[in-house]
Amino acid sequence: xxxxxxxxxxxxxxxxxxxxxxxxxxxxxxxxxxxxxxxxxxxxxxxxxxxxxxxxxxxxxxxxxxxxxxxxxxxxxxxxxxxxxxxxxxxxxxxxxxxxxxxxxxxxxxxxxxxxxxxxxxxxxxxxxxxxxxxxxxxxxxxxxxxxxxxxxxxxxxxxxxxxxxxxxxxxxxxxxxxxxxxxxxxxxxxxxxxxxxxxxxxxxxxxxxxxxxxxxxxxxxxxxxxxxxxxxxxxxxxxxxxxxxxxxxxxxxxxxxxxxxxxxxxxxxxxxxxxxxxxxxxxxxxxxxxxxxxxxxxxxxxxxxxxxxxxxxxxxxxxxxxxxxxxxxxxxxxxxxxxxxxxxxxxxxxxxxxxxxxxxxxxxxxxxxxxxxxxxxxxxxxxxxxxxxxxxxxxxxxxxxxxxxxxxxxxxxxxxxxxxxxxxxxxxxxxxxxxxxxxxxxxxxxxxxxxxxxxxxxxxxxxxxxxxxxxxxxxxxxxxxxxxxxxxxxxxxxxxxxxxxxxxxxxxxxxxxxxxxxxxxxxxxxxxxxxxxxxxxxxxxxxxxxxxxxxxxxxxxxxxxxxxxxxxxxxxxxxxxxxxxxxxxxxxxxxxxxxxxxxxxxxxxxxxxxxxxxxxxxxxxxxxxxxxxxxxxxxxxxxxxxxxxxxxxxxxxxxxxxxxxxxxxxxxxxxxxxxxxxxxxxxxxxxxxxxxxxxxxxxxxxxxxxxxxxxxxxxxxxxxxxxxxxxxxxxxxxxxxxxxxxxxxxxxxxxxxxxxxxxxxxxxxxxxxxxxxxxxxxxxxxxxxxxxxxxxxxxxxxxxxxxxxxxxxxxxxxxxxxxxxxxxxxxxxxxxxxxxxxxxxxxxxxxxxxxxxxxxxxxxxxxxxxxxxxxxxxxxxxxxxxxxxxxxxxxxxxxxxxxxxxxxxxxxxxxxxxxxxxxxxxxxxxxxxxxxxxxxxxxxxxxxxxxxxxxxxxxxxxxxxxxxxxxxxxxxxxxxxxxxxxxxxxxxxxxxxxxxxxxxxxxxxxxxxxxxxxxxxxxxxxxxxxxxxxxxxxxxxxxxxx
Length: 1043
What we know:
By secondary structure, this protein is α/β, with parallel strands linked by helices. It folds into 4 domains: 66-149 and 246-284 and 318-381 and 398-446 and 487-513, Purple Acid Phosphatase, chain A, domain 2, CATH 3.60.21.10; 150-243, no CATH class; 543-783, P-loop containing nucleotide triphosphate hydrolases (Rossmann fold, 3-Layer(aba) Sandwich); 808-1042, Rossmann fold (3-Layer(aba) Sandwich), CATH 3.40.50.2020.
């Protein structure tokens, strides 16, 4: 054999072996992973044009395709029992409550002993993980009857994948490492977008990691809702999901229950081609004669093969019932679309003869169902004589299908809301999107009761097709951006029947009180009681005492307002200059002053040592050899020192340089300072420079003996600065002592107070008393004036000034769509659970921030599409964008802000009310770098987030802080849920007319009250204070969101 033939033989043999290995591996994966790569759906032939959207197709051997419910499982024959069918729940449960009764079940008076509870799928996902798991626990523990939803199916697929992955050690370890990285990323940024993070991880993965990524289908979201639920499932809950059938069939009620939908015919055939429809082979009664029990024919035998267990329990005695069962079995088994699990789970409409998951294209399948059921032979069925009415017109008879009407109950299509048609019931009313959760309650009937129709009908009224809602997105989920439509949850005033049973009710509850929300008697957010001292408001009305449920500020040493009601600064910070020789005790005196003032955070110490100049390489060599003079005024950057001190004195922010004595060099980093009411500038040359002396309100010189200063200097430099004693003495004699005699000691003549020794308590007490007096003179209290401005503004005739006109306030009001009104209705309800309040608050904040984006500048941008067509659009023309929340209640808007603008920094400021005066106090500040640095702040656009503007005291302070940092007034966008027309908004807009204010609603009233005080630091007597509440408002938003 020639070498070329040998090579060819080896190549063929190698290919054959690889093929065998590949097939063996595929079989192994199918057994463990429970998926097929692509192929059969199982015992039914697949509807080939609709495969699962996932890259792996679930193994249909794990499906329960059809389950029949018996008379006892669907007890419509018993007048004492009911069937309660519930729409899509999506994990809307509040597991934190402990009261056992449940709102929707409480509404329908559900009795587990008498009633049968049924769900239409999608019982989990989309809601918080705890809610989904609580629903699954309830369903599995009570063994509730239901069908599988498309989201339930995704959870099952993830569970199967995780079981397979756990058998591969390296894959399991890689998953654990990846999940740890995701948790770290979440801690750093709680609102990080998961899918963006996953894409970044996939792109940056190594070759080995890329091989693991390929095992996860690209459209699966690892660590998402479905993954977390699948990972947390117990065996009982997982088995419950596996046992859920795709379709429920109730032969005694001639009813189907599915999640997505079913078709009564094959849409691939033309509408007039009745002969080719599967129902054409089903036997029927061509003449209006009384039927008798006859032998089973060949067509019946074919249908009965494999599906005899689905036939009604009474079919042997009633031929009509028997034939109806056969026709319903034909719908389940002979129409290919109804055998495709993907179609049954995701069907919303039919487009060009194919099933589609889009609701806004083609023909909604319930409309097709109604049209075909309406044209069935045997439109009516009288039990008195079991006659079947047949149309006498032969031509009309040809247009009818050989079937009897059957009903169907389904979910999945939230965009249509409560979609009640003849013979079809759509129960998904979008509770996960803030709408309602709906239950269909069917009352049983005694067997001997009279009825007119075995099927749903609307008496004496023509059943009109309702306009179906649209779902513009192209995903598995319903569009959560659809506006709330009141038509979708209203039941029309028509008499409804389900088969021959009366529909007891169709009950819808708001999403805030979804089916499994525990029934809670809602506590008031503010307890109205009686104060110890009767009080009245400015109009003479009695003022109720209010018991606060907010966190008590234990230490209220914040920064009080430094501006007036016009928004302008009324006082500068109080600046003290402390000079003295090296190691004379200047820093100790400064610290004693801070300690005597109560260690309040608005007192800072600014050291002159931080302002040593930057040294070049030559100067650094001299400094390390102790040959550089650090005690001459030229060694200090006096202009920079004066500039930073001037900024702090004028209540602006400043970035102080950082100097390293070990390296003898100024570092690149800076220290941010802002918000000081008292500034203590200390340094050996603090009184030497005239520009510095002009900034001081009080000048202090600390006097000390030279030998004592030398001893302290040696100890300090050795211990703190790592220097040698010889170098310290040499530097002292060469530079320090001459500088002290030439520059430092003469500057004592400029001092207002000379402190002889650093432990002089009398001098320090004198200084502290003087500081307190000056601070009291500079304090500003105007909250009461801006809270109810109408009280302080009267016309010449003595009448009250009319209230502000909404148009004059120049607010950007969120469009009051039905969806927004529905959200506010839920949020204003004091009985809304905390979980629902958080969910809908986040939803509303997202809409507000989206609305606020209109105030950013935009520039035109041209994009060239792949087909070489230029498209003109716009892009944000702001160099820096950031957000700042006013804590605590402003934090309720932060998640919505991050959802809309994901990649921008977000800072915060803690502003609370003083325990006695009620004035706003700045307690903490953590701003983004875009605001901290003045040259960046001048180009930054800042979204200021707070829950409401009532008295506007916090808003005044927050805006003033941003202006002090250099943010232009027209670059501030204030986003809030509520604004009180009667409150301080008018004064705020007058003070800052160029600030944009975006709000969701405007309330008219402000209720004056008295808040009981707490005994503590700064308020030893526990005195209360006056407060104002927005009416009707949303309660204490911070408490409701965080507590």
